[in-house]
Description:
The chain is an all-alpha fold.
Amino acid sequence: MAKKETEKGKSIFTALHGAVDSVRTSVQNVKPPDVKAPEIKVPNQVRELLRKKPRKDEQDRAAEPLTIRAISTRNAIKIIYYLMAADGEIFHSEEDKFDAIGTELDPDFAENKEQIVKECKAQMENVIDPEDYYDVLQDGVELALFSSVRTEDSFITPKLLVWDLLTIAYSDESYDESERRLLKYIVRKLGIDKAAFLEMESSILTLMDLERELNWIKTTDRPYLTIESMVNELADRKNVIFESAKDLIAL
């Protein structure tokens, strides 16, 4: 979620209040003189300046929402870490997936990982009370999204980031509600269509189910040819779903 800038100002009401009260008593019975207000002539240049409206392109820019078209790989890795921490515990399976995705995104991930995790943990130390935990994670995600600088050789697209986040969320076979809440926040901030997100969720679920079925079939004592046929059929279904997901991410 950007931090709101706090406006600091000192109210003059208290300072003026005593003066107003003392003057009100002395003037309430005095009849004001009939004085005609002088005509104040405003120079044409000043008048035109006061009338000047923002240029149309300036108005349009102010009205347009910020569109995030790419996220730096470093910040994407931070967001993945925050999602892993969303349920309060980082599981071994999630960490393995984190390392795999991090290495895929960043060739220097092994050298950068320690510093990235350190920065994420520093953000998480902003928790004051336990109920602040989710908000602090969301703040970290927002900072990572909106401070991201795209470079030509090191960035990730919004949909690919969401797909990677889904694979992390399901890697421990427990899609926690806090993980999904954070994911939906990211989807909204990235401006990803709701239908596309739900389709990606459905694809991940189906792939996970097929993977579990594959693992179960391999443990049965059915004839080899029967097992091989079933394994090939499931593998084909996985490939179809995966290709469909890749097409969706590429749109």
